[in-house]
Amino acid sequence: MSEPIGSSTDDVACFDLTSRPWIEVLGLDGVQRELSLREVFVRAAEVRRIVGELPTQEFALLRLLLAVAHDALDGPRDIEHWADLWSDAECFAGVGAYLDEHRERFDLLHPTAPFFQTAQLRTAKDEVFSLARIVADVPNGEPFFSSRMPIVQRLTFAEAARWVVHAHAFDTSGIKSGAVGDGRVKGGKVYPLGTGWVGSLGGVFVEGDTLRETLLLNLVAADTDTMEFTSGDRPAWRREPCGPGGSERTPTGVRDLYTWQSRRVRLHHDGSSVHGVVLGYGDPLASRNAHRREPMTAWRRSLAQEKKLGQSPVYLPREHDPARSAWRGIASLVADRAENTQGAEAAAYLRPGILEWVARLVTEGELPRGFLIRARIVGAVYGTQQSVIDEVVDDRLVMPVVLLHRQERTCARQAIDAAEDAELAVRALGDLATDLARAAGSEEQGPRSVARELGFAALEGPYRAWLLALTQDGRDPFAWRRVWQCEVRRLISPLGSRLIAQAGDAAWQGRTVTDNKGTQWLNAGLADKWFRGRLARVLPGAYPRDTTPERSPALPGPASPQAGEQVEHAVSVTDPKVSA
Which of 59, 260, 385, 463 has its Cβ near the most Cβ atoms within 10 Å? Predict the structure, then answer.
């Protein structure tokens, strides 16, 4: 049993993160508990996942654990080393000795090198600030939206440790108090230098059935050709403690990036709990073209930055859109790099390095084709010049790992195209809402947005079920795509009928409208015909050309069409958006 705080021989307070419980986890038994760093690795096979106060905290802690694993295992060196770890139930046995070796640097309250902090960090006026500066679930100026009322007075050492890790990853930008010794201070302040490193990313990682699987699936081997590793890569606790100023340097690899010291922090405590904090800027880091070092985000090519900098290509992290569910962005997760390339042009998008790594595992036969993974997306959405966190994005998509296979791309392409089917059908529903509003002479944008939300909500569950069944029982992906188009039609068509029934007398009477095709009379009846024609165009598999009723296997779940259900034939209409 570990000693209580303040009971050491020199009576100096300590909180050893290697032996004291501080990381919250959910066990396979459904019980939530706190574990020490050592216990997390010993019991990784018994743990479902990390549980944070926020999903972003979970992500930041996972990156910390990955840095420990990479450094303790000194690898994996190559895919063979990874395969040995995957098959070894005691693969993390060496982590205990590693933590013993570096135990002093994991003391949250160490007098000269406190964990993830800068000893003696202070402002010129020796100010100590509210813990709300590091506790991200207390919105600045919006305390009524938090469970912590009205402010954070104190934190346990375990809570404080979690929020310190989170601050380095996701802290907001804005003006911060200047620390004594920081050359960037002007008038007692340091002006905005951006969010914590992970806050600039659209975070992506892979979840397994246990924390052990999750750690191993995200443990990228050093011989991965899409990533850069150096022999000098090491985490923050194997570097000299940070001073109050920032350091302009390039990360040496994932161990460095996963523990990047984006901030300078000093906790104030009384030996029993934490009551205040000093928080300032740390090491700045530009996200431009960091795709060969940072594996936990997708990347987008920025033509604007290429023009500004006079270089090509330039890639920036592809941040998450809180209004867009993970299934709708499946292309950014499973599309192979070559599929985003046109001729000699650089790819418009790069999928996350983590998923490139898992693609390699399945392509080289280290993971079975039927193995299921959860692609988890986590991110923060900042507002008001990145000085506050407006929203936290958290979603996951369960999918067969074969979708990432580099040579067998048929299933992946059908999955991407099926998501596009959904997008186009919902667009048709939104166009219907717009046309009905135009026919009635009312505002258009509101009805269109509501219709699109209804459409995506109706398709989300069925798409996820369809995706899981895509590779089952030797199923033909092309035939299964036609089943999906029938399902989309079955779900979206009644939503259109409902919009038309609710259109009102003004829309049925109609009015003269003008668009780029000229002037014409538009009413609810014509809007309905256009809508049916658009669905016929974007969902051709749901409109067979012969007169024989189509019989298709049903999708899983209660929303599935009945086998043998007759499919209507396409409507021949004149719609400028269809015929163009």
Answer: 59
